[in-house]
Design a protein that fits this description.
The chain is mostly helical and 314 residues long. Helix content is 47%, strand content 6%.
Length: 314
C-alpha cells in the first residue's frame, strides 16, 4: 500500500487477490484514511514517536513564510518554474554532481521540495487550472509537471479519508545515498531497474518514513504481506531497508520484471492506478536523477475526514 500512498502487499503468485493490499503512502492512500498508494502507512512526526494526523502550522516556503497555492495559471506556472529551478540548484549543491553528502537533508532542499510537493498535490486536484498553467511552461518542465500530476491523481484515486484520531508511527528515512546504494545493488543482482524500486519505496512509505503496518497487515519500507515476505524475502528482516529492497526486487523479477514491469507491478499491488503512478515516477527519475532526491525530500500526507494533514517534515 502506497503512502499517499501505498505499497505492495506482495503475496505469492496464486494467492487470492483479497490478501493483497492497495494503499500507497502518497499521503495515505488506500489504507482507509491515508493517501499513499498501497495501504496507508502515513508517517507521523519525524521524532520516531507515534503521531496522530496533525494540522500543518502554516504553508511554509523556503523563505519560511506562510504561502497559499497560486490561484491563477500565470502565477501557478511561475511558482512551478521558480521552485523547480531553485530545488534543482539546491540538489546539485547537495550532491556535488555525484552522491549526496551523508549528512542530513539540507534545509533548502527539504523546504523547496515540500513546496514543490504542495504545488503538485494542488495541480492533481485542479486539472483545469493545471492544464492552463502547464501550457505556459517550457517543454521539459511541462512534461515533468504532467507526469507528477498524473501520478498523484492515480494515487489519490486509491485514497479514502481516515478518522483524525488515527495514530501512525513515523521516523526519519535512511540517508538518500545509502538507499540509492541498495536500489542499485538490487538492480545488479536481479535486473530490476533501480528507478522502479525507488519509485515503489517512494509510493509505499515515502522512503521508509512510515513505520505503521497497513490496514491489511503489510509491513516494512516496501510493504510486504507476511506470507509474501516469507516466500520472497530471502530470509531477511522485512523492516530493514536493505533487505526489503532485495526482497522487492526478487518478487518483481519472479512476477515478470524486467521483461514486463506492468505485470510485475500489478502483482505487487493489483491496481492499474498504482502501476501507472509507479511507472510515471520512475520515468521522471530516469529522465533526471535529481528527481530521486526531490522525491526523497517529499513528505507524508494523510487525508482525514476533517481535511488533509502532513505528518512529517519541517
Amino acid at each position: 500500500m502506497p503512502v499517499h500512498g501505498g505499497t505492495p502487499h506482495a503475496v505469492p503468485p496464486g494467492a487470492r487477490a483479497r490478501h493483497r493490499r492497495r494503499d500507497p503512502v502518497h499521503g495515505g492512500l488506500r489504507h482507509p484514511g491515508a493517501e499513499r498508494g498501497r495501504g496507508q502507512h502515513p508517517t507521523g512526526h519525524a521524532d520516531r514517536s507515534k503521531a496522530g494526523p496533525r494540522a500543518d502550522p502554516g504553508r511554509r516556503t523556503a523563505a519560511g513564510t506562510r504561502h497559499k497555492n497560486p490561484q491563477n495559471a500565470d502565477k501557478l506556472a511561475a511558482a512551478l518554474r521558480d521552485t523547480t529551478t531553485r530545488l534543482n540548484k539546491a540538489i546539485d549543491a547537495w550532491t556535488k554532481g555525484g552522491e549526496p553528502d551523508p549528512e542530513e537533508l539540507p534545509e533548502d532542499v527539504e523546504l523547496l521540495a515540500l513546496y514543490q510537493q504542495r504545488l503538485y498535490r494542488y495541480t492533481a486536484r485542479h486539472p483545469g487550472l493545471a492544464s492552463k498553467a502547464f501550457a505556459r511552461l517550457p517543454a521539459k518542465l511541462r512534461s515533468q509537471a504532467e507526469d507528477n500530476t498524473e501520478a498523484l491523481r492515480e494515487l489519490f484515486a486509491l485514497t479514502r479519508p481516515i478518522e483524525p484520531s488515527k495514530v501512525f508511527k513515523v521516523r526519519d528515512p535512511r540517508p538518500a545515498g545509502e538507499l540509492l546504494g541498495y536500489f542499485k545493488k538490487a538492480e545488479r543482482r536481479f535486473g530490476v531497474e533501480w528507478e522502479v524500486l525507488a519509485a515503489v519505496m517512494f509510493a509505499e512509505t515515502k522512503f521508509g518514513r512510515v513505520r505503521s503496518d497497513s490496514h491489511a497487515g503489510a509491513q516494512g519500507p516496501m510493504q510486504f504481506m507476511p506470507a509474501t515476505w516469507k516466500a520472497y524475502g530471502l530470509g531477511g528482516d522485512v523492516q530493514d531497508p536493505h533487505d526489503a529492497v532485495m526482497g522487492a526486487a526478487n518478487y518483481l523479477k519472479a512476477t515478470g520484471a524486467p521483461r514486463d514491469y506492468r505485470r510485475a507491478l500489478h502483482a505487487y499491488n493489483p491496481s492499474q492506478a498504482y502501476v501507472d503512478a509507479i511507472l510515471l515516477h520512475a520515468r521522471q527519475i530516469k529522465r533526471d536523477p535529481r528527481a530521486y532526491y526531490a522525491y526523497y525530500a517529499w513528505q507524508v500526507f494523510v487525508l482525514t475526514t476533517e481535511g488533509e494533514r502532513r505528518l512529517t517534515g519541517p
